[in-house]
Amino acid sequence: MSYFINVGGGLLTNLNKAKIRRKTFVAREDLLDSLAKIAEQKGYSLYAFVNEVFELVLKAEEMGLDLRRIFDERGVLENAKRAGFILGLESLWYNLSDLAYERARSRALKDWFEAGVWFARRYTTTGSLMDPIEALWRDLKVFMWNISHFDIDQSDVEISIRVLSPRFSEGYTSLLASFLEGMLSGLGFKTVEREVFRGNIRLRGLKAEKVKS
């Protein structure tokens, strides 16, 4: 069902201006209902709130901004924040990873593995309607935007991961591989094949119950 709505000046578009002509357009009922709820929460009329939305869209267009891209990029940052990620200089991160790998290799590998387990379990315990593995891979591929090649193939009983990046240091490659293995473990998979060298990670995991002891 659609609603007709009149638009023009409103509370947020300066009532002191000269009278503005109005036009009528058709909008989806569910969208207008949602806008009406938001407007009520903010203490605005639907009329005023719709005009504010239009003004913001026009302002973004004048500035040459893509609203969908802005929302998507903001969503990435919010998801990364909730997942426990922080922003940092890439070169500094590689240097620190190499230092940890050289000075305390066993401890560093263990910590990264456990972080991967924790990261995966965030998705398996949230109760989201989306498949937890699908949601995890979707976010992970976005968070790790510095990886030039990141492929994940999944079936009911098997997962394969392939990571390629010429910018990775040796230490960081090994630690990231441990993190990914931890994720597989947190999702109920056991790593059965592993190929790791600088800038290259290839892992294959099987459902734990399918692996012969």
Helix and strand arrangement:
Blueprint: E1 2-7, E2 23-28, H1 29-42, H2 46-62, H3 67-82, H4 90-103, H5 105-124, H6 132-143, E3 149-154, E4 158-164, H7 170-186, E5 189-197, E6 200-207
Antiparallel strand pairs: 1-2, 3-4, 4-6, 5-6
Explain this structure to me?
The structure is a single chain. This protein has 213 residues and is of the alpha+beta class. The protein folds into two domains: 2-65, no CATH class; 70-210, 2-Layer Sandwich (Muramoyl-pentapeptide Carboxypeptidase, domain 2). It contains seven helices and six strands; from the N terminus they run ββααααααββαββ. It has a four-stranded antiparallel sheet, covered by helices on one side. A two-stranded antiparallel ribbon has the order 1-2.
Examine the secondary-structure arrangement and name the CATH architecture of the largest domain.
Answer: 2-Layer Sandwich
Give the domain tally: 2
Instruction: Write the element-wise H/E pattern from the N-terminal end onward.
Output: EEHHHHHHEEHEE
Largest sheet: 4 strands, antiparallel
Low-confidence stretches: 8-18
Using DSSP, what is the number of strands?
A: 6
What is the general shape?
A: elongated
Q: Structural class, please?
A: alpha+beta
* The CATH C-level class name of the largest domain: Alpha Beta
Q: Quick check: average pLDDT?
A: 81
Question: What is the strand content?
Answer: 15-25%
- Per DSSP, the total helix count is 7
Percent range for helical residues? 40-55%
User: Could you tell me the radius of gyration in angstroms?
Assistant: 24 Å
**Distance between the first and last residues' Cα:** 59 Å
CATH topology of the largest domain: Muramoyl-pentapeptide Carboxypeptidase, domain 2
Strand order of the largest sheet: 3-4-6-5
